[in-house]
Amino acid sequence: MTSSPLPAARSQYLLDLLAQLPDPRKRRGPRHAMAGLLAGGIAAVIAGSRSFAAIGQWAADAGPDVPGALGAARGPAEESTFRRAFALVSQDLLDRVLGAWLYARRCAPAAGW
Fold first, then answer.
1. pLDDT per position as a tens digit, 23-60
2. How far is CA 7 from CA 14, 52, 68, 78, in A?
């Protein structure tokens, strides 16, 4: 299941909001940026993914430019990485961030979005 990536302005605003969420993971070794993982998962769900396996498959199939545009500098993550990230992040804070992003998208002038 593939889809065209979000335009840069839309994805950057989402990344800026997601970067404000605290990263509850322990600091050890290289890993994917939490904002990039969440943005990739959100994009996959918008594209129709309905499970963590489908999110991982979407990320793998999305093409080489999509993960970077969504803040995943290390490339696409595996299904288990998405699963752990979404399990660890505060669901209340994630809900607020997504609500703010959707509200901004709704209120933005059509020409810019």
1. 988 887 668 899 999 999 999 999 999 999 999 999 99
2. 11, 24, 12, 24
